[in-house]
Structure formats: structure tokens, C-alpha cells
Amino acid sequence: MTPLARSLLLLVAFLARAAPSQEAVEGSPSAEASCAGCHPGSVRAILSGAHAPTVESTALDGCATCHGPGEKHARTSRPADILGFSRLSAERTTGSCALCHASEIRAYHRWDESEVKEAGKRCTDCHRVHEPRGARLAERDLRRFLDPPSLAAAATSVGAETCASCHGRQAQRLGLSDHAKLAPGGEDARGCEVCHGPGSLHAEAKGVRRLITRPDGPRARGIATCRECHAGVDPVRFHWEKPPLLAAESCAVCHRVHVPREEGWKAGLWVEGAPGVSGGYVGDAACRRCHAPAFGDLGDTNHRPRPVDADDPPHRGCEGCHGPGAVHAASGGRKPLEGGRFPGDAACFACHREAQHFARWPGSDHARAGISCRDCHPVAQPSLPAKVQRASDRCATCHPDVAAQFRLPTHHPLPEGAIRCTDCHDPHQGSARTNDLALGRDGCVNCHREKSGPFVFHHEADRVEGCVVCHEPHGSVNRRLLTHPTTHTLCLQCHSDTPLFHDQTPGSFWRRCVDCHAEIHGSQFDRLYFR
User: CB neighbours of 41 closer than 8 A, spacing ≥ 6?
Assistant: First the structure.
């Protein structure tokens, strides 16, 4: 037998007893029968509704859980002898409901600062305790999931006064704002519904948010709603077609409708409350209000917003690079940031000044060529290694000729990922040219240590021009990255004064130089590099 069926059988038994209310003693097993004897419809409704567990639970006092002890009321039948919610103030009603629903009242309704509290609304104005689960609730539940066009078609206008009965604070502030004509009693009889759409379904459902025809969220027709009245606003000048403003889904990102004229900047049109001006900094929260997508782009990067030291104002989040933003925010973005939209290298050095390789940056090839930090290092560079774009790929965007050399038959294993451009070239200092001896030799021996010696007899080319006199550093059509197709032609570039007995006619044994001079990089025993 289901709990509901068992409860109904108990109800029938209670009703069949003779005048139980006259004999009931508070706390006795027949106390509930006392309520059912005079209020059968209420008991029947609550047993088939959402509060049935309250009556059925053996750990609670049934009807007395909400209405208090009922012994005196059972004897006198006077309403004043029991707790009746219709006679309670909104504050006392909320206190009684909070015995079980404290979290919903505090977190979901945010009761302490809500407009519903200011309007004097009670929990029971919207919530029916003695109400069975019937067709009306089922229909309301179905309407919650209407798509926006169907919702707008089903709703009808109710007038600004109906809106103000629950949203008194907003209605009062609207009457003091530049949109005062839409407030209750204003010139425009359509009132609140000009922006929020017809509100009949929302009002019938006692404030169900999903039934607002046009919610004030940023994606709920946003700009289109405002342009119904402000069609003359230039869309380019005011951000949304060529967006310097990244979060331009709604005019309400910056403009507040329910703000009195005397509040805020420029007659209350811009952000509520003037931004903090201590030192000219406003903090990341003010930046996020307009540039929310930028924060998403920086979410998992090395430049993601993070807590900073309050005693170090030049490095406060976004403003650490872009400079103080108080004037920019107060002007609604019309006045530029002190550090500019695209900060220069000085902003990078402010945080990366401790890195040793930046000391020689001003004299480097890249600095002299006008390359900035951002040209190679994206601000939104992912912090996770798996997402980091290979540095060599970025080098190839400016050095396509070098990138092409790595596709030749013989090449250093850069495309395979075994090495990177930065293993040989330091982009932040000195010269990156391969004819520089420090790079043309020292860069090579970092990996090819067996060729570096020290030798008793060094190959002089190694001392003067480095490895690149014989080898192409990136890629070649010749084996071993040689600059010439054969060692014979390569050696003759420097050693044209071969001995007379070195016959150089085609097919001669003496054209195979390295067959004898095998230790070509250097020797410990022979000045001619014999074995």
C-alpha cells in the first residue's frame, strides 16, 4: 500500500469517529484527527501536495508543525487561538517558513535584500501550502519550457502597476531615471513591458523567472530591444559592429536603465556607482564588466587574472599592462587607456625585467628590426605545454626561406620536433646570423661535442669561420649538410694548392680527400689530419 493510500485511509477513519476534536489532547495520537474533523478539505489537499511529508512524518507534529499547538483552538473553534498565516506579517511568515526552508529563502530568493521583501510580500502570496498537485500547476510547469517566440505569443500585457506590486524598488528608481516615462503613472502606458515584454505569464506564475518574455540577460535580444526606441544610435561609434567593446551583446553592459539621474556618471547612464579612483586604478572587476570575453581568452594562459599584492598598484591585473583604467571606465570606454589598447615592450619588461637574456635585447637583431614582444609571444599563450604553439612555427612566419631549407633531403631534425630554433638562436640578444662565429661554431658544438676537441692540431677553418664554412646549418641537398656535393670540391675551396702528386683528373684516387685526411675536424697526432 502506498503512503498516499495509507494516509487517505487514516483520513476516512478520522472522519468516521464521533466528535474527535472535543476529546483530543495535545500530543496524543488523535491530534491530527482533531484537524481533519473540521478541516477535511485542507487535510486532504495537503496530503496530496508537496507538504504531505510534514503531516505524515512521525518526527514532526503534523499540522502543529506550522500552526502551533491546537488544543485551545479545538475547544473554542476561535481563529485567534491558533497560528493563522493570513493574519501574520511578511516578516513573521518568512520566519515560520524558514524553519524548514532557510536555505531557499536565503540563497535562492536572497530575501534580506530582495524587492519582494520591500513590497511586503509573504511566502504564502506565491506558495500555496494547502494545494493539491493539480492541473493548474501542471500547466504552469509546461509553460516554463516554451521557446521565446511561443512565450511572447502566449503572454499578454498586465501594466506597470502590476509589475510595481512586486518590484517596487525598481519602479521607484525607474521613475527617477531618464526612462521615467516608462514608470507606473508615466507618459508611456506600456511601462515596463516595453523592454521586458508582456508579463501575464510571469505574474500568473508568481514570479517564475523563465516566464519573463524578455529577460534582462545580455543575450536576450540585448541591443535589438534598446534600438526599438533608440534606432538613431550609430552602431559603429557605439561599439557593436566594430567592437572595441568585446562584450557588446547588450547595451546594459554599460548603460543602467533603473538608475536615478543624480547617480553615477553622465546622468546615471554609465555603470552604477563611479569606479574607484585610488591611484587611477579600478581593478579587474570593472574591466570584466565590458571585456568579459577577454577574460575567457586568458582563462588558462600565463597571463590569466590572478590575485595581486595590494601594495603593488602598477601590477594590478589588466592594468598592470594597460595602465590605470579609471578615466577609461568612467568615460564608458571613450577615453583611451593610459597604457594603450596594445601596450609596448615596456609593459612586458615591467614583469619580466629579472630575466637575464633581456639585458642585451636593445642591441639584438630583432629589436633593431622593430620586432615587439607580442609579435612572437601571444598574450593568450596557453600555459599547458600540450597547447603551446611551437616556437619554431612562429619563427617560420617571418623566416619562410629558412623554414623551406628544413624541407630539403638532408636537414636538422627540427620538423620532427627533436630540436627548436631557439636551441641555436637566442632571439633576445646578440646576432642571430649564421655567419657569426659564436653562433656558427659554439652553437654547433653544444650538440656535436665530439667535434669540438680540444685538439693538438685544429682545423683552421673551425677557428676562423666555424662549422658553417663546410656545413649548411638548416638543410641541404647534399649528404651531411655539406655546402658542396662532394668533399673534393668542398676542400678545393680552400686547398687549391694541392701537392703535384695529387692527381686531380676525373677518376683519380687523390680526389677522395677524406680517405687519407680522415680526422678532418682535428687531430691529436698529425697536422695533416691523418688517422
Answer: none
Q: What is the DSSP letter of 471?
A: B
Residue range 178-192, pLDDT digits in tens: 888 888 888 888 888
**pLDDT single digits (tens) 89-122:** 888 888 888 888 888 887 777 777 777 777 777 8
* Whether the predicted pLDDT of 268 surpasses 70: no
Give yes or no for a contact between 321 and 343, defined as CB atoms under 8 angstroms apart.
Answer: yes
Q: Where are the alpha helices (DSSP H) in 357-483?
A: 365-368, 373-376, 391-398, 400-405, 437, 443-445, 460-464
**Cα 327 from Cα 71, distance rounded (Å):** 69
- Range(s) of the domain holding residue 462: 453-523
Q: Indicate whether 506 belongs to any domain.
A: yes
User: d(Cα 372, Cα 429) in Å, to the nearest integer?
Assistant: 13
Query: Is pLDDT above 60 for 403?
Result: yes
Q: Which three cell numbers stand for residue 263?
A: 547617480
- DSSP category for residue 428: T
pTM score of the predicted model: 0.47
- Residue-level pLDDT at 404: 93
pLDDT computed for residue 309 by the predictor:
45
- The verdict on residue 489 lying in a domain is yes
Rounded to an integer, what distance in angstroms lies between the CA atom of residue 490 and that of residue 470? 7
Overall number of domains in the chain:
2
pLDDT in tens, 327-352: 777 766 767 787 777 787 878 877 77
At 245, phi and psi to the nearest 5?
A: -90, 115
Cβ–Cβ < 8 Å for 268, 262: yes
How far is it, in rounded angstroms, from Cα 415 to Cα 413?
6
Collapsing DSSP to helix, strand or coil, 375 comes out as helix
Final residue of a structural domain among 83, 108, 131: 83
> Phi and psi of 400, rounded to 5°?
-65, -30
Please check whether residue 516 lies inside any domain of the structure: yes
Rounded CA-CA distance 396/393 in Å is 5
Residue at 128 is within a domain: no
- Mean of the pLDDT values across residues 492-507? 84
| CA dihedral of 58, 59, 61, 62, whole degrees rounded to 10 | -50
Average pLDDT of the residues in 39-43: 84
Determine how β-strand 410-411 pairs with β-strand 475-476.
antiparallel
- Buried b / exposed e over 351-367, threshold 16 CB at 10 Å, is eeeeeeebeebeebebb
**Cell numbers at 67, concatenated:** 500552526
Question: pLDDT at position 7, please?
Answer: 55
Domain boundary among 35, 61, 83: 83
Which residue is listed with cell 511568515?
93
Whether 49 contacts 131, CB under 8 Å: yes
Q: What Rg value do the Cα atoms of the chain yield, rounded?
A: 41
432-451 confidence digits (pLDDT tens):
554 466 677 777 888 888 88
DSSP SS3 for 225:
helix
